[in-house]
Write a structure and sequence with these properties.
Strand content: 15-25%
Bound molecules: zinc ion
Helix content: 40-55%
Structural class: alpha+beta
Distance between the termini: 48 Å
Number of helices: 4
Number of domains: 1
Number of strands: 7
Radius of gyration: 18 Å
Order of helices and strands: HHEEEHEEEEH
Shape: globular
Length: 142
């Protein structure tokens, strides 16, 4: 590979990494509460589409955030850990996954899910819609 090719590759890699971090930050802004607000506002079904149960759960995750943009996956922190690191340094967000696991982390390739606790049915929502909704909501608030 020529030096020129290498530098093009590095530039592309850096661009992808930067973009992926931007997407990651946006994904982690969507708290379970915001996601539920989004679903209600959009008129999404509040019952399982398979069995009709109302026992639906949105999986959520917690990270410890260092230096504003370094996310460390954290299994539910206890009182002592919250006191040690500061509550403001933890983010709680709707667990997300890639739609196509072989593709990069982009807005259009990410999804949230809602699980039915009765029959196990899993409903998927494109994360991009919730992220866009939240961005618009923030823009209105100013
Ligand atoms: Zn169900």
């Amino acid at each position: 590979m020529s030096d020129e090719d290498k530098s093009i590759n590095n530039a592309a890699d850096n661009y992808i990494k930067k973009h992926a971090l931007k997407v990651e930050i946006a994904l982690k802004e969507i708290t379970p509460q915001l996601f539920s607000e989004f679903l209600i506002e959009r008129g999404a079904s509040q019952i399982c589409l398979s069995c009709g149960s109302v026992d639906l759960v949105v999986p959520e995750s917690t990270d410890l955030v260092m230096e504003g943009d370094k996310f460390i996956p954290y299994a539910s922190p206890d009182e002592n850990e919250i006191a040690e690191f500061g509550a403001e340094n933890f983010v709680n967000y709707v667990t997300y996954s890639k739609i196509d696991a072989d593709r990069t982390l982009t807005y259009s390739n990410m999804q949230y899910s809602v699980h039915c606790m009765n029959c196990g049915f899993i409903i998927h929502y494109k994360a991009a819609n919730a992220i866009k909704w939240y961005a618009d909501k923030k823009a209105v608030k100013g």
